[in-house]
Amino acid sequence: MLPTTRARHAMLAETVSGGSGGMADWDVVVVGAGAAGMVGALRAAAGGARVALLERDAAAPSNLALSGGLFSAAGSRWQHEAGVEDGPDRFAADITDKTGGAVPQPLLRTVTQGARDAAHFLADSAGLPIHLSQTARFPGHSAPRLHATPAESGAELAALLRAAVRRAPRIAWLEGCDAVALRSGACGVAGVEVSDGGAARRVLPAAWVLLAGGGFGGNAARKARHLPGASGALHVGAASNDGRGMDWLDQLGAALRCMDSYQGQPHVCRDGDGTHRLGAALPALGAVMVNQQGLRFAAEDMGPSELTAHVLAQPGGAVEIWDAAAQDTALRQGPFRAATEAGLVWGGGGLATLAARFGLPPDALADTLRDAAACARGEQTDQHGRTHWGTPLQAPFFAAAITGGLAHTQGGAVVDAGARVLRADGSAIPGLLAAGGAACGVSGTGAAGYVPGNGLAQAFALGLAAGATAAG
């Protein structure tokens, strides 16, 4: 039988110093205040647990804040209100189809069922204003199941979650507190060793530790080892994704899976400081991509993560082109608005002006856009295999110079339905939980299995499960 939080406290009494009456100071210490960490902290606190939430640098954006803020959930009340028929089984079937069945079945069930529960928890317990986003349909989803807060922005979603965390009296938000090691004892993981920026270190004893970091996208050595095909891509995720959680998991003998899986981002603006993205909605709204010869090079309606490799393969980068109707619709989403406000979107001109602005051969570009329009009208078959076009593009055109990036990794610890970290033999490592970038995702292997919204679905579902486990 797995120990409850109360039993974990009793076992820790003889192995951990500090606390009242020999008890651990905290029911759970959460390492990382991103999507998984904040949901885990909120759920644990809602169950009566005492929570320490560690944030290395509160001023630096997390993967959540840098994301589009869209998360998948199937069978939610917002879908029901919109007349959308969906549920966990259909969600699981979509993931299985996209990943070729590479996602472990227990994890698949936990995420596809838990994402819906997490969406309701965010609304009912954390007070977030959730809605069903229908801005665009994305490859990999057979039904509209992307949810968001009003601005459809990761920055907004992160801010709303932070506000909810700060309202929770049982959560201590420890800013500037850097987790540098896990403390282990005879009964398993017993706390976290932290630094406040100086040489001195201290231990935060806990009955449970939840690893909720953002993966290893910022760790060059691990990327070269696990993601050789994407190791040279621009990392557009949080700088804190240094992979130290993976090192700890390795040391403890945790089973790691799908370590070559990642979310590629094919809509990163080449101009500016490299932090702006156009978001994944543009292809569904009819946008096309061309190389420096003014030629299309891939089916833009494939999954955005797998499209990244095609963008990266274009010498000199690529240009994404759309029209006024797509511009108006895409402005509903936060990352696209931010890129437009930063002056990274050119727009409002005809073909000749567009070609001159980006240095593209005008005749080749004219042929490309004419062929694309014919495909969109069903008059010819696309040589690249694109089947979803939206309406044919027409002037005035909008465009941006783009490249490919690595948003975040999707591999990590194998966990059970309660987000407990498992060893290769299936036994749980006592006291250790994982969610978000520290846990195996639902994207299978490589880049092709990632579907927009599924990264946050895993983070929220496993965060919710971890919080329930920590609350006992």
Automatic annotation (TrEMBL):
Coiled coil: none annotated. This is FAD-binding protein. The keyword Zinc does not apply. SUPFAM superfamilies: FAD/NAD(P)-binding domain, Succinate dehydrogenase/fumarate reductase flavoprotein, catalytic domain. Pfam families: FAD_binding_2. Residues 27-444 form the FAD-dependent oxidoreductase 2 FAD-binding domain. Its cofactor is FAD. InterPro entries: FAD-dep_OxRdtase_2_FAD-bd (IPR003953), FAD-oxidoreductase_2 (IPR050315), FAD/NAD-bd_sf (IPR036188), Succ_DH/fumarate_Rdtase_cat_sf (IPR027477). Keywords: FAD, Flavoprotein, Oxidoreductase. The keyword Oxidoreductase applies.
